[in-house]
Amino acid sequence: MAGPSKEKKTLQMTVQTVWEARKSIQSVVKKTPLIHSKKLSAQYGATIYLKYEHLHESNAFKMRGAVNAINHLTAEEKAHGVTTFSTGNHGLAVALAAKKMGIRACICVSKHVPTVKLAAIKELGAELEIYGEAQDDAEQRCYQLEKEQGLAVIPPFDHPHVIAGQGTIALEILEDLPQVDCVIGGLSGGGLLSGIGLVMKQTNPDIRVFGVSMEKGAAMHESLQAGKTVSVTEESTLADSLLGGIGSNNRYTFQMTKNYVDKSFLIPEHSIAKGMAYLYKEHHIMVEGAAAIGVGALLDELLPIDRQENIVLIISGCNVDGVSHFKAIESYI
Ligand SMILES: *Cc1c(COP(=O)(O)O)cnc(C)c1O
Question: pTM of the entire structure?
Answer without folding.
Answer: 0.95
